[in-house]
Amino acid sequence: MALVTEWIIPILTWGLLRLWRTIFTPIKRALVIFCDAIAIPLGRQMWRLTHKTDLGEPLQDGFVETPPEGGASAVCEGPLSKQSVNIEPESPRRLRAISVESNPLQDMPNRRGPSSSEPSIENITPDERKNLTVFNQPHSFIIRDSTFVTLDKKASNTSAEEEEKAMNLLRSKRTQGAEANSYERFPPPRCHPETRKTTRGAITRWLDNIHRDTNMYWLLGPAGVGKSAIAQTIAEQTQAIGYLGATFFFSRPNGRDDPATVVPTLAHQFAIRFPQYKQFITKSLATDPTILEKTIDFQFQHLIVEPFRHLRAAQTVTQPILAIIDGLDECRDKDAQSAFIRMISSCTSPEEDIPLAWLVCSRPEWHLQRLYSKEDPSVKCVSDELLVDGVEGRDDVHRFICDEFAEIRLRYRDEIDERWPEEDDVVELANISSGQFAFASTAMRFIKSDEPGDPISQLQTCLEVIRKSPISEGDVNPFQALDFLYRHVFEAIPPKTLQNTMRIIALHKLLTNRKYPSDAIGLYEQNSISEQANLLQLSKASFYASLRGLHSVINIPSTEDAHAETLHVYHASLLDFLQDPGRSGRFNQQLVEAHFNVVSQMLKWQSFLNPICCCEGAITSLGVCRTQRQSMLRQDALVLAIRFPTWH
User: Fold this and answer.
1) Which residues pair with 74 in a beta bridge?
2) What are the residue boundaries of the Nephrocystin 3-like N-terminal domain, all occurrences included (predicted)?
């Protein structure tokens, strides 16, 4: 019995299946040949005779056969029906099914389409639509004197090509590193989970309120109170829930201060996040490729306001989209700062119905005071000012310092007692900070710096330096404690090394100052550490030795990244300190001397440039070209030396 079950029945089953396939396959092929050769042509002819109209003889799939003049033609209805190409007989092109937006034949008499029982484009599945061709599995037919009007194959790629062109155009005009998640800003300033909760909560409630009176929230505060940290934290929180649209973080010491790049940078981010927005601005840039060469107000209207107004009307965007501009006061043009506020305010009223909410952070500079103090009725916004020495600010700085010390104890758990530091030292450091996160973060970076890698002695050094600067409540300079800390950082650098340190800082400032084209003097925006060292004729060891004591104020990439990364100043207050002789003393004079030294070094490099140049397609003599080139470069370099002698 087991033999029958395991062997005989399976063998008989397999044999019957083979017999069935052997008999059925020829029958199937015969039926296919019969249908293709007789049944289908006969059925089509009968259908034509019963559905003939004055316009001609309708064919399947939305085509109409019209009486030709010297040849037959086929017309494809739809918005792209006027585009035509010739179809090669040996390789008929594939026609894509398209939706009919406008039908020029719909008002003609006696025209009848297929009934509901007949196949239609709407009933075709996506997989079948991909395989749709003019003739499905053609066999044994002849086409005489035929011209097909069909979609150009290139037309389907036009949209993608235009979008890529538009994105490349925006990319070429944007400021790299201004995004919230940019590597150039890593690590970005962030709020401690328990700090600035009142301000962050107010911004969140304003954003969630669908009945808010204005779509602009203006956060004001002096340097160092944590505005950028709040903006970064809000950006990360809104990005996690899909509310973030775009960000622009200004940074004067790092060269992100050009107002002409703000709109392209924001538009580039919007286009990445919202495909419908990308399609709209692609059409705008295709119609007028010079938009990015127009005024900032013109760019703002055509690349920000109009696209989002269109998306709102089409109900494509229903949730609020947040745009963040941080450090507006670090924009190099004061008139542009005011212009941005007015442009944003003009489109943030509920009547405009534009799905954009704006968070703007800046210092309360004098030229902006009139705008946020309600003196200008055209500016409508929610203004919120952070106090330097408020109760919440002091408490937040104290929490931040305590957590930083906890991190240091964890890192040096085998060397530092868990009771370190004493509470009196923590309170003293927090009181000296006076609510300024710029000082607190700089001090903590100084204490936990790997150079020399001794947090206990670094804390005592920091406190001793600060104690030399008794600060009263009536001090005019709110950064006196920070200035003393900066001064100590530079005083700790050996005199022989300090000269190269100042040269590096001077070069960094020149490279990031975009008031002049850097390529005019042989420099490029891709100024990596290795390139800077080469220009200053410093070895890798000398370059890094010159920066050894600046890790608390400058983000210095590792030697492995020297060919790809550059320096980043943590806070603009460092350059403010060096540029003010009243605050930095002799270090300001040393920086001025380093500035002239760097410009002189540039002139020396120009003498080694390739003397060959082309003028309207012809190569001039080497002597003439060298003279013209060097004259131009010397003039540019001297203009720099004269125009920026004190970095203003």
Assistant:
1) 65, 148
2) 202-363
Q: Tell me the two tokens of residue 106.
A: 């719909």
Give the β-pairing of 72-76 and 146-148.
parallel
> Can you tell me whether residue 64 is helix, strand or coil?
strand
58 Cβ neighbours under 8 A, 6+ residues apart: 48, 51, 64, 65, 111, 112, 113
Do the strands 618-619 and 244-249 form a parallel or antiparallel pair, or are they unpaired?
Answer: unpaired
Residue ranges with strand state E in 354-407 = 356-362, 382-385
Give the whole-angstrom CA distance, residue 171 versus residue 165: 10
d(CA 43, CA 47): 6
Are 363 and 224 in contact, with CB atoms under 8 Å apart?
no
For position 41, what pLDDT does the model report? Answer: 64
Q: Rounded distance, CA 132 to CA 624, Å?
A: 66
Q: Which residues contact 109 (CB under 8 A, 6 or more apart)?
A: 54
Give just the sign of the alpha carbon dihedral 604, 605, 606, 610: positive
CA atoms of 465 and 439, how far apart (whole Å): 13
Position of tokens 């494809």?
76
Residue located via tokens 């039926």? 31
How many angstroms separate the CA atoms of 594 and 600, rounded? 10
Q: Which of 225-239, 393-407, 442-456 has the lowest mean pLDDT?
A: 442-456
CA distance 258 to 261: 6
The predicted pLDDT at position 130 comes to 44
Q: What is the pLDDT of residues 350-402, one digit of tens each?
A: 778 889 999 999 998 888 888 877 667 778 899 999 887 778 888 999 999 99
pLDDT value of position 35: 62
Residues β-bridged to residue 251: 256
DSSP 62-128: TEEEE--SSSEEEEE-STTTT---PPPTTSPPPPPP---S--TTTTSTT-----TTS--GGG--HHH
Higher-confidence position of 513 and 404: 404
Are the CB atoms for 130 and 124 separated by under 8 Å? no
DSSP string, 190-256: ---TTSSHHHHHHHHHHHH-TT-S-SEEEEE--TTSSHHHHHHHHHHHHHHTT-EEEEEE-BTTTTB
- Give the N- to C-terminal CA distance of the chain in Å, as an integer: 103
Asked if 273 and 356 count as a contact pair (C-beta separation under 8 A), the reply is no
